[in-house]
Amino acid sequence: MKSYAKVNIFLKITGTRDNYHEIASRFVLVNKIFDSIDFIESSSSIFTIDGNFECSTKQNTIYKAYKELSNEFPSVEEFFMSHKVKVEKNIPTSAGLGGGSSNAATFLLMTNEELNLGLSKNELADIGLKVGADVPFFIYGYNSANVRGIGEIVEAYDENILDLELITTDIKCDTAKVFKTFRNDFFCVTPLDEIEQLFEIDSEDLLQKLKPVEANDLYESAIFLCPTLKDLAKEELFLSGSGSTFFKMINI
């Protein structure tokens, strides 16, 4: 099953909730870049992920999703004693494209269907939120959505699918560190009336109306933390999430 990437057309911080940042953002699915996930028959005494990852199994979002599901459904643990998860990775890591969250969501959807768990998308999204803030968006499978809170409120946005060019890099932006830098050095809260206006404008118009630094509250934090991004930053390029991927509409 394909596990797609996403970009943030805009990303605004609206407040804090404990250790989390509340956001308002337009998420857009990018179907030209994706990982592929399969369940392969393979006997093992432990949960196994076969793929080119830069983290240990227990740090992997797929494993975290597995643990959340298996805590509620013993059949999940039993199934993965006779199957392994095979992942063909194409989405760069630590790139603001949501690859880990997409993988977790795809795993939850596949397991729910394979084992007939009968969970609704709302229930899967609740489980996914325990794994990562972006997971619910990928659970619902919208091409475009307005996302609020810490990622738990996902509202479909009806618009034409954008043709986007992604400029990926080898630079790794640590999401937690970018948010921490934002809170310590760049903290600001976008007024709610401004947020509502952004939610009403389609993504194509937003990319023509906003400057990259205006669109993403994490833009300055990411470049401060990863100064080599300055070499790639151009007036027409927008930064997705906490970085390091830049993007633009192809017809701009």
Architecture blueprint of SSEs:
Elements: E1 2-17, E2 20-41, E3 49-50, H1 61-72, H2 74-79, E4 83-88, H3 99-114, H4 121-129, H5 135-140, E5 144-149, E6 153-156, E7 164-167, H6 175-186, H7 192-200, H8 203-209, H9 212-215, H10 219-225, E8 238-239, E9 246-249
Parallel strand pairs: 3-4
Antiparallel strand pairs: 1-2, 2-4, 2-5, 5-6, 7-9, 8-9
Helix pairs in contact: 1-3, 3-4, 6-10
| Helix content class | 25-40%
What is the element string, with H for helices and E for strands?
A: EEEHHEHHHEEEHHHHHEE
**Major beta sheet summary:** 6 strands, mixed
* First-last Cα distance: 32 Å
Bin the strand percentage: 25-35%
Structure notes:
The longest helix is centred in the middle third of the chain and has 16 residues, at 99-114. The chain folds into two domains: 2-156, Ribosomal Protein S5, domain 2, CATH 3.30.230.10; 164-249, GHMP kinase, C-terminal domain (Alpha-Beta Plaits). The chain has helices spanning 61-72, 74-79, 99-114, 121-129, 135-140, 175-186, 192-200, 203-209, 212-215, 219-225; strands at residues 2-17, 20-41, 49-50, 83-88, 144-149, 153-156, 164-167, 238-239, 246-249. Helix 3 packs across helix 4 (121-129). The strands form two sheets. Strands 1, 2, 3, 4, 5 and 6 form a six-stranded mixed beta sheet that branches. A three-stranded antiparallel beta sheet has the order 7-9-8. Strand 1 (2-17) and strand 2 form a beta hairpin. Helices cover 35% and strands 26% of the residues. With 252 residues, it is an alpha+beta fold. It contains ten helices and nine strands.
